[in-house]
Amino acid sequence: MASVRQIANQAGVSIATVSRVINNSPKVSEASRARVLEIINQEQYKPKTGKLLTTNVAYIFTDAITLGSPYDAGILAGMSSGLEYNELDLLVLNAKSCRGGGETFQDVFRRKGVCGVIVRTTSATVAMCRAIVQSGLPTVVLGDEIEGYEPLCLDIDSRSASREAVEHLIGLGHTQIAFATNVVEDKDHSDRYGGYLDAMEQVKIEPNTKLHFRVPANRQGGEQLARRIAAMADAPTAIYVADPGTCLGLITESRKLGIAVPDQLSIVGFDDSETRYLTSPVLTAVCQDAHRLGNQAMRKLVGSMPDRILETEADDSALLAWFEVNESTGPAPVR
Which of 58, 172, 190, 313 is most buried (most C-beta within 10 Å)? Predict the structure, then answer.
């Protein structure tokens, strides 16, 4: 009896298309359905009892769901071509609530027809992420490293670009340099903080812990940050903010509070897309391409699936952040 792969080859379609026909999915053209069914009948193919062919890729959050963030939007956009190329569907799951009583993640994935998983994890949810990895499905992890499963993890190296950004501020004469990061910890944010410390230590500037802020990674968090800075007796003259949404709130609220950027406060932000061009002044930023990360995550996932095909045109070179100087940084003010 022919295999699903052999049927796909004979019909000139993907394995995913054969799977859809077998499972009576409406997402198949009538011509392809007829061709596949003809070969199935010729070969007298019968699916194994109890074995359902699956076409769902799960994008699973182990902490807060942040689909509205530029990072997640970029990831999903980058995944889209790989999903379409392999006729796969996207399923968004909340790891904290998707399991029924007594269910394992393996049970959930089987019930929901999941054939591969891309996990958004944080430092606080490593144990949950490990349980997902151990389900046995092809998995790619974004946001943190899981000890023992490093080959499954993927991120963009932002430490070097972060160091360059803080060196830029130091070169402008700033010594009171603050750092702001998300309230949720993960490897990406730790790398950005590491780059900040690297630059400060290189010129023997003792980091002032009173200038290290944790705020929610959104516009409201940035507004809160601006108000905190405005209330300080010895406020920083420059700040590196590790999240895009926070930067937007900080710049907008600073203007309302009468804090001139960059004359009174130089701001280096972080940008996952092209948000930096939407601010006034245009944001000096450490930049990463979340779209490309999503594309590579999908390629990595598909590469571990024996029945799928990689897109040949994708770029698999190193994922690195870069530093871009724009208008939101300037010389340290004289006090």
Answer: 58
Q: How far apart are CA 297 and CA 311, in angstroms?
A: 12
pTM above 0.70, yes or no: yes
Same fold, 4-43 and 57-156+290-303: no
Give the span between the Cα atoms of 132 and 118, in whole angstroms.
Answer: 10
Distance between CA atoms of 142 and 75, rounded to whole angstroms? Answer: 10
Quickly count: other Cβ atoms within 10 Å of residue 89's Cβ: 17
d(CA 227, CA 252): 11
CATH of domain 57-156+290-303: 3.40.50.2300
Topology at the third CATH level for domain 4-43? 434 Repressor (Amino-terminal Domain) (1.10.260)
Each residue's pLDDT tens digit, 150-176: 999 998 999 999 999 999 999 999 999
CATH fold of 159-289: Rossmann fold (3.40.50)
Assigned token pair, 143? 């946001």
Tokens of residue 160, six digits: 């070097």
C-alpha to C-alpha distance for 245 and 267, rounded to whole angstroms: 13
Query: For residues 329 and 262, is the Cβ–Cβ distance under 8 A?
Result: yes
pLDDT digits (tens, 9 = 90+) for 74-112: 999 999 988 888 888 999 999 999 988 788 999 899 888
DSSP per position, 168-195: HHHHTT--SEEEEE-SS--HHHHHHHHH
